[in-house]
Amino acid sequence: MPTIMPIRDLRKTSEISELAHSMQEPIFITKNGYSDLVVMSAELYEKFAQVNRIDQAISEAELEIEDGAEPISAKEAKKRLDKKYYG
Fold first, then answer.
1. Most buried one in 16, 53, 67, 71, CB count within 10 A?
2. In angstroms, rounded to a whole number, what is the distance separating the alpha carbons of residues 41 and 17?
3. What are phi and psi of 33, to 5 degrees?
4. Which candidate, 32, 46, 35, 31, places its Cα nearest to that of 2?
5. 37 vs 40, 50, 52, 65, 76, CA distance in Å?
6. Taking residues 66-83, what's their average pLDDT?
7. Alpha carbon distance 86, 58 (integer Å)
8. Distances in Å between the alpha carbon of 82 and those of 38, 75, 86?
9. What is the pLDDT of residue 83?
10. Structure confidence at residue 15 (pLDDT)
11. What DSSP state is assigned to residue 68?
């Protein structure tokens, strides 16, 4: 169940910070009964950002294949990445 708080509770910054870190879930902030903001810990944000980067890379790869690029095996992809990052 998502955590939902009214915007007036944003004054309780320490409580919200503790809640965000302990739950590791987004906290939805409402204004006049409508969704307005989302608050989360920096760690959770980084996880979301990482997943987004992976999803974006997959989407780009799918478009490249649609445009005629040849797919490569996971083994070959790992080999290329290792070479790129480890020389």
1. 16
2. 7
3. 85, 0
4. 35
5. 10, 21, 19, 37, 42
6. 88
7. 23
8. 37, 11, 5
9. 85
10. 96
11. T
Q: What is the pTM of this model?
A: 0.69
Strands (E), 1-87: 3-6, 27-31, 34-39
Amino acid identity, position 52? N
Which position has the token pair 């302990």?
A: 22
Q: What is the pLDDT of residue 45?
A: 96
Residue from 44, 76, 23 nearest 5 by CA: 23
**Structure-token pair, residue 56:** 């974006």
* Residue 24: partners with Cβ closer than 8 Å, 6 or more residues away: 41, 43, 44
Cα separation, 2 vs 42, whole angstroms: 18
Q: How many CB atoms lie within 10 A of CB 70?
A: 6
- Which residue bears the tokens 């204004």? 31
CA–CA separation, 40 and 19 (whole Å): 9
